[in-house]
């Protein structure tokens, strides 16, 4: 397959924060192969914050398929926007008939994506899906075969600007009781209940880390406020709750200054990894080999007991909490965190 000429490239992103972050190695590899090209992304509005200030992306376009682009008129307006951008090539990182049709409707001449009976016909370059188990971030790289080679998987990226960093320092110093003291972050939330470690175990771990001289910060989104309060109420030592008080960008700038980050498998975990924070990742029903932290192994400890789960990965959020999460003890998490703190001091 000859390598198509590409000067204006659109990358259609997957959904969710974590998957968008998993796409950053692909974006970096694409920039390496087309250093002078104009590269734009198309994705959910909620996920644009993940790529803000990314050095490999020139423009962020939103596809609000549940809002402004839900109707036929909305999709037509989006298509007109894509036509105006005059893209000569597009990569689509997920198999999707609706997204493939948008690219065809917009008249983008080169459309590269994964082959499938449902949507492959709308592509000009169809790449076979690899059936072997691999990290999610690796699955996007075969699309780059049309440019000659897909390269190797590199850690994902998240960029905090200098202004965001300074604003976070000022905010933490003036609106919390943290001052300049080192702090550990507990992130008890996850999009599914059965991916969550028990709140009382986060609380017990927080108390033990506080005994080491660390202040404790509990993070999360607006939906995690009650969960964060539950953790704080179970603690003997004081804790600062940031859940629901920050945007994703503000939270990331705060995380960048954390001494250590302890979290379930969720998108914010991967942001902390991309920010090179020491991370203790708690995994149960999901597989670290498929969606685990991707960064400096010296700064990452994954706690996972796959033999305690009936199946991995398990995508059944209606199930009760998995034995895999229950099998991670407070002592195990404390020892792992303390060892990581000593190693990264």
List the helices and strands and how they pair.
Blueprint lengths: L7 E5 L4 H6 L1 H10 L4 E6 L4 H4 L7 E4 L9 H14 L3 E4 L4 H9 L4 E5 L10 E3 L8 H4 L22 H14 L7 E5 L11 H12 L4 E4 L6 H10 L5 E2 L6 H8 L4 E5 L2 H8 L4 E5 L4 H4 L8 E5 L18 H4 L3 H14 L2
Parallel strand pairs: 1-2, 1-4, 2-3, 4-5, 5-6, 7-8, 7-10, 8-9, 10-11, 11-12
Helix pairs in contact: 7-10, 8-9, 8-14
Architecture overview:
The chain is built from 14 helices and 12 strands. It has helices at residues 17-22, 24-33, 48-51, 72-85, 97-105, 136-139, 162-175, 199-210, 225-234, 248-255, 267-274, 288-291, 323-326, 330-343; strands spanning 8-12, 38-43, 59-62, 89-92, 110-114, 125-127, 183-187, 215-218, 240-241, 260-264, 279-283, 300-304. It has 345 residues and is α/β, with parallel strands linked by helices. It has 2 domains: 8-147, Glycogen Phosphorylase B (Rossmann fold); 162-343, Glycogen Phosphorylase B (Rossmann fold), CATH 3.40.50. It has a 6-stranded parallel β-sheet, with helices on one face. Strands 9-8-7-10-11-12 form a 6-stranded parallel β-sheet, sandwiched between helices. Helix 3 links the parallel strand 2 (38-43) and strand 3 (59-62).
């Amino acid at each position: 397959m000859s390598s198509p000429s590409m000067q204006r490239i659109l990358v259609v992103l997957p959904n969710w924060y974590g998957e968008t972050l998993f796409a950053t190695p692909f974006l970096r590899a694409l920039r390496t192969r087309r250093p002078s090209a104009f590269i734009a992304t198309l994705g959910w509005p909620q996920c644009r914050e993940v790529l803000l200030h990314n050095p490999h992306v020139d423009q962020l376009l939103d596809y609000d398929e549940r809002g402004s682009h839900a109707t036929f008129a909305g999709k037509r307006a989006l298509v007109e926007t894509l036509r105006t951008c005059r893209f000569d090539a597009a990569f689509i990182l997920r198999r999707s008939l609706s997204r493939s049709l948008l690219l065809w409707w917009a008249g983008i001449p080169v459309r590269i994506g994964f082959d499938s009976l449902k949507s492959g016909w709308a592509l000009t370059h169809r790449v076979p899906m690899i059936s072997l188990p691999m990290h999610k971030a690796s699955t996007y790289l075969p699309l780059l075969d049309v440019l000659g080679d897909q390269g190797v998987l590199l850690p994902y990226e998240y960029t905090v600007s200098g202004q965001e960093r300074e604003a976070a320092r000022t905010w933490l110093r003036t609106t919390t009781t943290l001052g300049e003291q080192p702090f550990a972050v507990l992130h008890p939330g996850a999009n599914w209940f059965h991916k969550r470690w028990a709140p009382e175990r986060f609380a017990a771990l927080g108390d033990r880390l506080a005994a080491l001289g660390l202040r404790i910060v509990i993070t999360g989104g607006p939906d995690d406020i009650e969960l964060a309060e539950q953790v704080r109420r179970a603690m003997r030592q004081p804790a600062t709750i940031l859940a629901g008080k920050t945007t994703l960008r503000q939270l990331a700038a705060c995380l960048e200054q954390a001494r250590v980050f302890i979290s379930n498998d969720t998108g914010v975990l991967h942001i902390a990894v991309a920010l090179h924070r020491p991370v203790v990742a708690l995994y149960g029903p999901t597989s670290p080999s498929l969606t685990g932290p991707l960064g400096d192994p010296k700064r990452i400890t994954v706690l996972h007991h796959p033999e305690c789960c009936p199946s991995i990965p398990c995508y059944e959020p209606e199930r009760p909490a998995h034995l895999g999460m229950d099998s991670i003890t407070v002592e195990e998490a404390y020892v792992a965190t303390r060892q990581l703190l000593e190693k990264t001091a």
